[in-house]
Design goal:
This protein is α+β, with helices and mostly antiparallel strands. It folds into 3 domains: about 5-65 and about 285-400, no CATH class; about 70-90 and about 170-270, Outer membrane lipoprotein wza fold like (Roll), CATH 3.10.560.10; about 100-165, wza like domain (wza like fold), CATH 3.30.1950.10. Helices cover about 20% and strands about 15% of the residues. Strand 8 and strand 9 (about 235-240) form a beta hairpin. Helix 1 (about 5-20) packs antiparallel against helix 11.
Length: about 400
């Protein structure tokens, strides 16, 4: 390939002008610049650096919230919407697929291990199926005792022992203000993990079928969720729970779920800053998509951007991830004027949003937290070098091109 000196000079000039030009402003469908998007922290800087005041983003976010469902019903946190779990949802209950041990002294006809059938019943020899789905072992044992007496197998009420040997997994549906609404499988032994001593022991217990597990399996609750009115539907009956205490450090009685349960998390139609913290029902963490700088490293490997960098705790902010991705630092004279872009999506509408921040601007402003968004699952970050760094890269490339160019 042949290059003339005139063509090379013109190319260098064009590249230099492009390197020094301002980065185009991103367009968004939602009113991001004025604070009308999912997070008010996305908005443009409202005042100069010297005129900063109190942080306004949490207040702007809260102004969009509709009242908690519990308060809208006038219950004041009591009655139907109290934190007390309804009696029908308390304790350990059976679900289809559970393995139970049924015993009667000196009786080999009925004694044995049984699996709760797909239709939710316990099926013993010669007896009609006994309803078991959603019931305790004591309730099921009482029905079996009555069936034995009614069938004439015993004249007096026999001694019966019904114990759970293993809780099966359960498939439940999760909808509403969670990041990944979908049917989820909860409970069961993960992978090939087997505790032989527990298998041999009588009785069983599990935390794997709890409500908190189902919410996390569905991506965790979103920041717009209304935790005052989480609804569980079981066998056509609706139960409404107030779970606000989960994120406030108060005692929380986790509900054990059974196969076929439906969970619905309503929304307050606003971003709630206080919900951006790790918790029992929040997302387990955030896996980021990152694009780092040419300087100080030419790729992810030398920048040490691996799995531990791409995964950050829930509640992490944009600039924390920018620093974690090695997008900040280096010679101040040549690389201080860097910027970073955040690619996110409004989980309520599905509409994407892009914002860009100057790293040094965020560093120098006292109200930086007012414009530093929280990261959400699926977010991506792109880092841009400074103009001087761009020019130095262009010079390096042109020097390389000059070394291989053939001038007539």
């Amino acid at each position: 390939m042949h290059f003339s000196r005139k063509t090379t000079s013109a190319s260098v000039l064009a590249l230099l002008m492009g390197a020094c030009s301002a980065v185009p402003v991103s367009d968004n469908l939602e009113p991001v610049a004025t604070g009308g998007a999912y997070q008010a922290q996305y908005r443009d800087f409202a005042v100069s650096r010297d005129a900063v005041g109190y942080l306004l983003a949490p207040q702007i976010n809260a102004s969009k919230c509709r009242p908690f469902a519990a308060e809208a019903q006038g219950s004041g946190g009591g009655g139907k919407y109290s934190g007390i779990i309804p009696a029908a949802l308390r304790g350990e209950v059976l679900s289809r697929g559970d393995l139970v041990d049924f015993r009667m002294p000196e009786d080999t006809t009925f004694t044995g291990d049984y699996v709760i059938s797909r239709d939710g019943t316990l099926k013993l020899p010669y007896l009609k199926p006994v309803p078991a789905q959603g019931r305790s072992t004591a309730q099921v044992a009482a029905d079996v005792r009555r069936a034995l007496l009614a069938g004439g197998y015993y004249d007096d009420a026999p001694d019966i022992a019904l114990l759970v040997k293993d809780f099966a997994s359960a498939r439940v549906g999760v909808t509403g203000a969670v990041f990944e609404p979908q049917p989820v499988d909860i409970g069961g032994v993960p992978g090939d993990q087997v505790d032989s001593r527990r298998q041999e022991a009588l009785g069983a217990s599990t935390e794997g079928r709890n409500l908190s597990v189902a919410l996390r399996r569905a991506g965790g609750i979103r920041p717009d969720a209304d935790l005052s009115a989480v609804r569980i539907t079981r066998n056509g009956t609706h139960y409404t729970l107030d779970l606000r205490g989960v994120l406030e450090g108060r005692t929380f009685e986790d509900v054990m779920l059974i196969g076929g349960d439906e969970i619905e998390v309503p929304t307050r139609l606003c971003f709630q800053d206080k919900m951006m913290r790790p918790g029992l029902i929040s997302p387990p963490g955030i896996s980021l998509y990152l694009s780092n700088l040419t300087q100080p490293a030419a790729g992810n490997a030398p920048s040490a951007i691996g799995q531990t960098v791409r995964e950050v705790p829930y509640g992490t902010r944009f600039m924390q991830a920018v620093i974690d991705a090695n997008c900040v630092g280096g010679p101040r004279a040549s690389s201080a004027d860097r910027s970073a872009a955040l690619f996110s999506r409004n989980p309520m509408t599905g509409v994407s949003v892009v914002i860009q921040r100057k790293v040094e601007t965020m560093r120098s402003r006292a109200d930086r937290d007012d414009y530093d968004p929280y990261l959400l699952p699926g977010d991506a970050i792109a880092c841009y070098d400074s103009g001087i760094t761009n020019i130095s890269e262009i010079a390096r490339l042109m020097a390389l091109a000059g070394a291989i160019a053939v001038v007539p």
